[in-house]
Amino acid sequence: MGEAEPAGMQRRQVLAAVVAGAAAAPAWSAAAPDDAAWAALRAGGIVLLRHAEAPGVGDPPGFTLGDCATQRNLSRRGREQARRVGERLRAQRVAVGAVWTSQWCRTRDTATLLALGEPREEPAFNSFFDERGDPRAQTAAARERLLAWRGPRALVVVTHQVNITALTGAGVASAEGIVLTTAQGRLDVVDRLEPSR
Fold it and tell me: Which CATH superfamily, name and number, covers 7-193?
């Protein structure tokens, strides 16, 4: 996006990118909630997980990527949510092959607290909310990374609501996940994993 574009035009472009992602999203599975999702993950599927609870919206003025003091961070409840999500995946016997995360502190902290493996930062999953980043380019790069996943273990990606919506058309709560499989160059939504209370 050019720096000279009015803020309203930039916001419309972000919204258009999210809507375009939603329009391309696959239909939900008719299988029983959770059962199909767990089976897909045990077979090497992908879960796009929104970071755990971090009160507020967006990031404060003065946001700096490498400085957690300038960002929204996990609440005490959010830290506990993240631990419970990790416990739930282990209880369901999901073998995790990799954990990817955006570079935001709240996603990195969620990924670490899952305790499912060493998280790796993947900038394609960085938030583009509030005119940060390029939604179209990031979503394309994220889709390409996901389509390249071959298992045989599950991939856990901790990212942001706006990214998940652009990729799947689904809104998600804090610590909620969308389970995907890949087939013939497309991402198929299996089901959602409700957040651990």
Answer: Phosphoglycerate mutase-like (3.40.50.1240)
